[in-house]
Amino acid sequence: MTFSGKIHKKTPWRLTRYDPFEAFAQSDRSLDRSRGGLGLGLSVAKGLLEMHEGTIAAASAGNGQGTEITFQLPCEAELPALTQATAPQPAGKQVRILIVEDNLDAAESLRTLLELSGYDVTVAFTGLSGVEAARTVRPDIVLCDIGLPEMDGFAVARALRHTPETAAARLIAVTGYAANDDRQQTREAGFDVHLVKPVDPEVLLGHLAA
Length: 210
What we know:
By secondary structure, the chain is α/β, with parallel strands linked by helices.
């Protein structure tokens, strides 16, 4: 079984000019390199795909037509099932978790991990929408980033602590801020736990189970 995908880029590529998969190859060879980049992205991608017995190719119809990157990866026909040993289940009723995270990829990855572990998960991408969702969902646990649009994580925690529906929720800060002052601020805002990104999934699941 093969997994295939395509990526479209605005920048054109022409075989007659250079091999885009060579390290440091760039279409913009001026001294100031106004478009930025080191010319390593496609080279690294090719190396990673080949390590997994995959392939990658580039094609462009010419200037102004963009570039199409096509890749293929072999994969198993069926994915192994997640076992009880690797995904501890919450005891009793299904635990409701609210994720407040403005990074879409991080939020969806975390949602997937928690749903596979048996939790009922809701995601909000801004601080304000997180507070509004909490009033409706009434989560048992809130995983909240600190650097958020509209309201930062500290303001979110304070708002949840002063709202009767969420005052007793377990608040866990999941953030890139790791200084002692940051930890002190999370405690003062009302967080119960301060976890630093990237969080080890086993560590996170341990806190949730507790």
